[in-house]
Amino acid sequence: MKMQSREEQTGLEHLFLDFMQMKEFAKNPVIMKSASGVWYKDVNGKKYLDGLSGIFVVNVGHGNRRVIDAIHQQLEELVFAPPLHSTNLKAIELAKAVSGLTPGDLHTMKFFSGGSESTEAAVKLAKQYHKQTGNPGKYKVISRYQSYHGSTMGALGASGTTKRKTPFEPFGPGYVKVFPPTCYRCPYGLNYPECDVLCASIVEKVVKEEDPHTVAAFMVEPIGNTGGIITPPPEYFRILREICDKYNIVLIFDEVITGFGRTGEWFAAQTFGTTPDIICMGKGISSGYTPMGGLAISDRIAKAFLGSGDQNLEFAHGNTFGGNPLSAAIALANIQEMKERDLPAKAKKRGAQVWQRLEEMKELGVVGDIRGKGLLVGVEFVRDPKTKKQFPESMKFGSLVGKKALQKGLVLRFDPHWIAFAPPLIISEEETDKMMDIFEESLRETLASVN
User: Fold this and answer.
1) pLDDT score of 9
2) pLDDT at 3 over 80
């Protein structure tokens, strides 16, 4: 009798996972079975501390009773409403709740079933807005290198992460990139603050060269994930806001990762003191208890889509699960939980604890830069902190540390040169220390193995 392979035994031969070479993954697969609080348990009974909120998602933690009860209650009442004919009470309630959390005049909501749908819709909204306000030639979208705005084609077109976008090129016309505010490794070879924040002010030159009459939007992550938790200097967003106002450009904040308490405020727009025209939401809006995303839209932008039936001014965009009553009920319970426990404030406190532990690890000689806000903290590894010389690309030092941590039961976001921490906002002081203990142990063992 032919023996079944491990892939056949687990069923992995039927799956493609995200950014995963399945042949390698199947050799030693991690298959999660259950979760509670900040802990996962796999099919073999091994526990993992969730240092990444799944993937920047589970802000209120796993197994939250308030959210689970809301699911059960809504299942008994209404799980789907006809989107071309109606809305539902939970969607209305959610729109009102989120509008009470967003900064400035971002009072109009549109909901989707994920972050990529949200960023894609934001670009479409900006283009239609300009067409309906007398500027039909505005179609270009400026974004940043090293960014990632989602997996759909429009969102990928705005993304600047080579390995994620190149396999699917070419995209449609009109995507323009600028360098991100990577102060630790300034693309212009300058130092802050003597640089006068050139990474922001140069956007005006780009707009002029592209022709302001053709530029519709600037899409930006307040903190860039795929580039290594890129965190801008304080003046950065104020300068971008001024440029966008000057040239009638829609400023879009992609807050799929940073929204809903992650940076220590409800939105990173508040953390950085700048109100965009559109905020893209996802991940933390439901803490992963349902796939969900959304847009928060300024009153000025929303006004252009209001009119009589024969004017055809409505947003020409639909989504089957937008404003789904079950998803809306889940998001409402998630927000209520975050409010009651003041989780944004807790993110600040625990984030400071992570930051302090990383500062202490500088004595190991490989911690180059620490960056982030709240409970979104990244650390870049270097061979020499004085020169900022990196480890050889082929070594993939950060990935070695991250994989060692996973073996020890800690889930983190890791790349060849950096690692990110983003645990659920409910994490306790003791659990945070546990997370950092495992990380430090993994870092020390990795250093010992490569030296």
Assistant:
1) 53
2) no
Find the domain containing 281 and state its range: 67-341
Nearest to 30 by CA among 444, 422, 433, 409: 409
Same domain as 397, residue 250: no
Query: What residues contact 142, with CB distance under 8 A and at least 6 apart?
Result: 176, 177, 178, 203, 206, 207, 210, 215, 217, 218, 219, 249
pLDDT reported for residue 8:
45
Do 333 and 346 reside in the same domain of the chain?
Answer: no
Same-domain pairing of 51 and 93: no
pLDDT in tens, 5-39: 454 456 888 889 888 889 899 888 999 999 999 99
Instruction: DSSP for 9-64, please give it.
Output: HHTGGG---TT--HHHHTTS---EEEEEBTEEEETTS-EEEETTHHHHT-TT-BT-
Residues 104 and 239 placed together within one structural domain of the fold: yes
Question: Rounded distance, CA 88 to CA 183, Å?
Answer: 46
Last residue of a domain, one of 319, 341, 363: 341
Gap between the terminal Cα atoms of the chain: 48
Q: What share of residues in the chain are helix, strand, coil (percent, to 5)?
A: 40, 15, 40
288 and 226 fall within a common domain: yes
For tokens 């290594």, the residue is: 228
The answer on 122 and 134 residing in a single domain is yes
What's this model's pTM, rounded to 2 decimal places?
A: 0.96
Same domain, 177 and 310: yes
Q: Which residue has the tokens 């795929």?
A: 226
Query: Each residue of 37-75: pLDDT tens digit?
Result: 999 999 999 999 999 999 999 999 999 999 999 999 999
Q: What token pair was written down for 75?
A: 């299942």
Domain count, the chain: 2
Going from the C-alpha of 118 to that of each of 92, 283, 321, 392, the distances in angstroms are 18, 11, 12, 37
Give the domain CATH number at 401. 3.90.1150.10
- Reading the block at residue 439, the tokens are 């990380």
Instruction: List CB contacts of 437: < 8 A, sequence separation 6 or more.
Output: none
Are 324 and 311 in the same domain? yes
DSSP code of residue 113: S
